[in-house]
Amino acid sequence: MCNIKDIKEEILLSKRIGLSFHTSPDGDAIGSALGLLNALRYLGKDSYIISRDVIPDNLSYLSLANDIDGSTVEPKANTDLVIILDCGNVERISADLTNYNGKVINIDHHISNDKYGFINYIDVTAAATCEIIYLLVKELGFYLKNEIDNQKSHVEIGSAIYTGIVTDTGSFRHSNVTKRTHNIVAELVEFGINSSKIHSNLFDNKPFEKVKLMGHVLSDIKLVLNNKVAVLEIEKKTLEEFNLLNTDTSDVLSVGLGIKGVEVCLLLKEVDDGVKASLRSKNDIDVRKVAEVYGGGGHIKAAGVKQKNVSISEARENLLKILAQEIN
Ligand SMILES: [Mn+2]
């Protein structure tokens, strides 16, 4: 793995920097992009977001969140560096890089990473890409000195980084949490972030319709494979009924995984051209391996895959077939 100093050097050498992340960005993708964007702007760097996606509602409290508006989908003229955050595969980047010939830096923590950058900083021991971004912004000069304690810049950068760490660790519950994770968070608290407020923004902010949708989906939950796998399904027409076509529904997974004896929770969601599946694992079952069979990826305990042109039941049976092998 390259040195974080190499990334700093490239940033300082660059005149115009674009930042992007994986499609359907989560708290870590958005947090790492906005944490770094805020830092770059404070350094006076001409920097901007490249994204097909728009900021999800529950992340709109972050500084510069409005820059993620889906309007810039490819690098602007004279961009000499593009940094891709939290994204393992080129196909998943929320930016169109077809006409871009400049440098790409890939900063990520996924085990399945194609190393598509000219610099690839892939740290699979990082609980979140935001952990790496913390090391980077520190390298760029945003560490704590007494005189700059609780400065606005630190609160803005720190809140974005904290958001990514909280969301990718399930609020510090997952086994990806390390001593370093807690050390970084301790330093972010010294930056002056309001961690309790961030948790409220993230989790106590659901639209009423979404809670009703979760109830509807949970009322049909099934246990299969000796009650070790919980299966949840959301049809497109249900999302239309609740007027929630573009809402993130992944938080219902933790309810399925919370069932006694369940090892894996599988959520299937019907989309225009197929079925998206999200998988979460409680202990040792590697759901990334299962997702990879159908072209998906992720982490051992959290993975996703989209199967094109299949029905929800076909998608379910495909994944259960592979899961059955992993469980026995
Ligand atoms: Mn991540």
Number of structurally distinct domains: 2
Largest sheet: 6 strands, mixed
Order of helices and strands: HEHEEEEHHHHHEEHHEEHEEH
The CATH homologous superfamily of the largest domain: inorganic pyrophosphatase (n-terminal core)
Structure write-up:
The protein is an alpha/beta fold and 328 residues long. It folds into 2 domains: 4-203, inorganic pyrophosphatase (n-terminal core) (Alpha-Beta Complex); 208-327, Diaminopimelate Epimerase, Chain A, domain 1 (Roll). It contains 11 helices and 11 strands. The protein has helices at 4-13, 27-42, 129-139, 152-168, 179-191, 195-203, 208-218, 236-241, 252-257, 287-293, 312-327; strands at residues 16-21, 46-49, 81-85, 103-108, 119-122, 222-224, 229-234, 264-271, 274-281, 297-298, 302-308. It is globular, with a radius of gyration of 20 Å. It binds manganese (II) ion. The site of manganese (II) ion has 6 residues, from loops. Manganese (II) ion (MN) binds at residues 28, 86, 109, 128-129, 168.
What key attributes describe this structure?
single chain, 328 residues, alpha/beta, inorganic pyrophosphatase (n-terminal core), Diaminopimelate Epimerase, Chain A, domain 1, 2 domains, six-stranded mixed beta sheet, globular, binds manganese (II) ion
